[in-house]
Amino acid sequence: MMKPLSLISFLPVLAACATTAQTVADTKSYTPNPALEAHAVKAASNPILSDGADYTTDPAPLVAGGKFYVLTGRDKAEPGVNDFIMPEWQMLEASGDPMRGDWTHYPHFLKPDDVFKWATPGRAYAAQIVQGPNGKFYLYAPVMQAGSTNKDGFAIGVAVSDSPTGPWVDAHPEGPVVSQSYPVANNIQNIDPTVLIDDDKRVYLYWGTFGRLKGVELEADMVTFKGAPVDVTSLTGFFEAPWIFKRKDTYYMAYAGNRAGPESDCTEAVYYACIAYGTAKSPLGPWTYRGVMLDPVSSTTSHPGIVEYKGKWYIAYHTADANNGGHFRRSVAVDEVLWDDSVSPPRPKKVVPTGGAPFDPAPVANIASHARVTASNAPVPVQYWLRALNDGKVHPAPLPPDMWGTWSPNNPKQQWIVYQWDQPVTLNGSSLYFWGDQPAGSGIGVAPPKDWRVEYWDGKGWKAVSATTPYSSQLDAYNRVEFTPVTTRCLRAVFDASTDGKTFAAVAAQEWQAFSTTPKAPLPQSVKGAAKANCAN
Ligand code: FUB
């Protein structure tokens, strides 16, 4: 039975009854927008909303009136749909310390076309609310511009309100404040805005994705460019999701980085992202890369929002950890950020994520999660992820990092994968869940293997197991073979590639199970290093 780590109760409450706190820094209290539907939420852990009723994405925390808010998007993709279906923004408002788990949830906070008459419905991407020097709140929101003739129709609109929870009006009703053609031409996708109000009240906007990051100072009107934008190219592995903040005299830029590879400090698989950061002595840089502050999460995208609240620092990010979550069904988590002030500039320590996906510790025969893994094509091409083989997950429409695969322009005749355990184990079966985009007999693409077999290491070399059931090679299904028990530290699956007689197809698998005669409690997602291909040690 699955044992939930997180228990959420939804209790309808009157928005007008929500409490407001006051701090020394900001003594004003903001009345919640009475037009909003609101629910009280008790979150036992991360993610905050974990039951899968509402998926929350792209968090942007805001501290105002002594309260901790998190603006989020909403993922509405059906299972198996690999697209950002994001019709509206939501808001979470903490009662007290955000780690206490008492939240008010405003599920239908705002839709793009509610406020931007020039925007299409849908595509309510990662937005941020900041409090301007005049005390008003400004929402920077990437939306799709209706009737855009730009190559990419994403554009950033700005809305304004007297309260963090609205109501909102367009601060620039003429249209977006940034697009591919306004106010100066650019050729990037104009999303993921982040805004800093500096101590001297000057305002800075950064935005960008797909490895392109731009920054510009804004006029006091919060919508007009002051000077030409700068292109930031010094933040190693920058992919998207910038978040600018200032601590003491240092400017920090956190972002989703995807510099990938077996030796990368960020991510093994290019579709995944770490949260990396850089620092600068002034708000428009130059920026210096400093390192990683959050390892990749369970969703391929990662997205940071970092604020100080009552003397502590917090990071909000999203994961795939909610019930039936996924790469396009993400959910917001909040954790504390601790600092190392002994170095210059001060360094945010690596965040230790709390909570996570429900995990069932009941013993199971499949002991793959205890194994280290390697493959004949290691280092595996960065679009794939070797450890997907024993992460216990099968996806209805997998992305490349949800599987191990071997595709290359010249696929070889044979491939293999190896599991290695620290101590000898006794095994009597194995199962592979193959993925492919070509039928059996193909010599191109990824196809089910012509044949495969299981071997074990007998201390000197590889020996075939004695199979008691036939091998099969169905795509999108478990292919299980039973064999006479073997006691070994290493198991190998060897694949003879599908061929049309001229060339060879690649092979790919989402899961590889190894069944022991002694069931064991599984381990959460493997973080073990690579196995040795020869298993001699
Ligand atoms: O939610 C859509 C996109 O996913 C955001 O714009 C990115 O930052 C990533 O989180």
From TrEMBL:
Pfam families: Glyco_hydro_43 (PF04616)
Record-linked Gene3D superfamilies: Galactose-binding domain-like, Glycosyl hydrolase domain, family 43
Signal peptide: 1-21
Domain of life of the organism encoding this protein: Bacteria
Alphabetical keyword list: Carbohydrate metabolism, Glycosidase, Hydrolase, Polysaccharide degradation, Signal, Xylan degradation
InterPro entries in UniProt: Galactose-bd-like_sf (IPR008979), Glyco_hydro_43 (IPR006710), Glyco_hydro_beta-prop_sf (IPR023296), Glycosyl_Hydrlase_43_Enz (IPR052176)
Family the entry assigns: Belongs to the glycosyl hydrolase 43 family.
Name the UniProt record assigns to this protein: Family 43 glycosylhydrolase
